[in-house]
Specification:
Blueprint lengths: L1 E9 L3 E4 H11 L4 H12 L5 E4 L3 H4 L5 H27 L8 E5 L9 H9 L6 E5 L6 H15 L4 E9 L11 H9 L2 E9 L49 E11 L7 E6 L2 E6 L2 H20 L9 E4 L4 H11 L7 H10 L6 H11 L6 E9 L3 E10 L1
Parallel strand pairs: 4-5, 4-6, 11-12
Antiparallel strand pairs: 1-7, 1-8, 2-3, 6-7, 8-13, 9-10, 12-13
């Protein structure tokens, strides 16, 4: 069994109310007044209160084509990713040079050399660290990356691994002729990063004790300075729970991956001359409600469990309808998906980083029960990624 030693999130400094983002989208996309009511309804029904953007709002109107926009992605995704990984390593009490495997996942830009190659020297990792950049997994990337790390650590139990999920979704704002799926996506997605440190079962427990942050200078402080667009919403406090080390043991017990048949055209990106445009079908929630229950039940049965045995659910907050579909497919209560809804409301859908943000919130809850947890990752394909975790008191 591999052990999760740290989960940390990093959010950009610019934090906005959902209604302000609706107004900005209408302006930047030149939405006619006849469609302004549609924009307001989509944003109001997205289950989002606030989101973070990497750029100040005014800068989005100046985005100029795929090349310059992708250059911004490389610059800012590298910076934000470095923050998340540095925090996670400090929280876990692990030195960068002791990392053996570095997995990165992102789908909101393209970098060659990949983000991990740019981050290895910046973070002080060894030159011979194994690197696995993942692209194309979309929202399921955080769960899939964590699962693939667990697979590696089963074969290399004395290794330490780091997962980074970083997404700058707002760089794909549809500035020209936005269709309804474009507007739905622009109402849901925000920017952010999450990093996880995972240690193999062969490492001595004494070497795994997490170190508290705050003793190594200003870079260790797990807070963001509020940006000029933060509108006094307290963005300096977002993610401050990351400053506390994990106070319980969290282990990965098992994983499962599944592709739903004939669903590859329901969710994804279409790359055009103007950049990425979202592919999003209303059938996504229908497919999830139809397929997910059986997949989860079979996975749990293979591990001697049933749905009522699970103490907590770490659900990807894809949107209100996606959360509803997971709840209904698994027969869960509203309370059991409340953390996913809270994550969506606080930061929006962070694509691959979202389910890790939910995991961090789950671990930070002081009254969360011990026992088995299930992470449910969802993404293009339609793909389902499940992880069985165990939280010990």
């Amino acid at each position: 069994m591999s052990r999760i030693a740290a989960v940390c999130c990093a959010l950009p400094p610019h934090r906005h109310r959902q209604e302000d983002l609706a107004a900005a989208t209408a302006e930047f996309c030149a939405i006619p007044w006849s469609r302004r009511g549609l924009v307001d309804r989509l944003y109001a029904n997205a289950g989002v209160r606030t989101r973070h953007t990497m750029l100040p709002l005014a800068d989005y109107k100046q985005l100029d084509g795929l090349g310059p926009t992708n250059d911004l992605y490389i610059e800012h995704a590298t910076d934000l990713g470095a923050q998340a990984v540095d925090r996670a390593l400090r929280q876990a009490g692990v030195r960068a040079q002791d990392v053996d495997l570095f997995v990165t996942t992102s789908v909101t830009g393209v970098a060659v050399p990949s983000l991990d190659a740019r981050l290895v020297p910046r973070l002080g990792m060894r030159g011979d660290v194994r690197r696995v950049p993942l692209f194309g997994l979309g929202c399921v990337g955080g769960a899939a990356g964590l699962a693939r790390i667990h697979d590696h650590l089963r074969g290399w139990p004395e290794h330490t691994a780091v997962l980074l999920a970083v997404e700058l979704c707002t760089l794909s704002v549809p500035l020209t002729e936005p269709a309804v799926p474009d507007l739905v996506g622009s109402a849901l997605f925000g920017d952010g990063a999450a990093a996880v440190v995972v240690r193999g079962a062969g490492l001595a427990d004494a070497a795994e004790q997490p170190a508290r942050l705050g003793s190594t200078g200003p870079e260790s402080a797990d807070r963001e300075a509020p940006g000029p667009d933060s509108a006094r919403l307290g963005s300096a406090d977002v993610g401050s729970a990351d400053a506390e080390p994990l106070d319980r043991s969290l282990r990965v017990l098992a994983t499962h991956s599944e592709l739903c048949p004939d669903t590859h055209d329901l969710l994804g990106w279409h790359l055009g001359t103007g950049g990425f445009r979202i592919v999003l079908s209303a059938e996504l929630a229908v497919v999830l409600e139809r397929e997910l229950g059986g997949v989860v039940q079979r996975f749990l049965a293979a591990n001697g469990l049933q749905i009522p045995d699970i103490a907590g659910w770490v659900v990807h907050p894809g949107g209100p309808k996606v959360i509803d579909a997971v709840r209904d497919a698994l027969g869960l209560s509203e309370e059991q998906v409340a953390t996913a809804r809270a994550s969506l409301a606080e930061v929006g859908n962070l694509s691959s980083a979202s389910v890790l943000h939910v995991l961090r919130k789950t671990l930070a809850e002081p009254d969360a029960p011990s026992g088995p947890l299930v992470m449910v990752g969802l993404g293009p394909g339609v793909s389902i990624e499940l992880l069985l975790l165990e939280r010990r008191g």
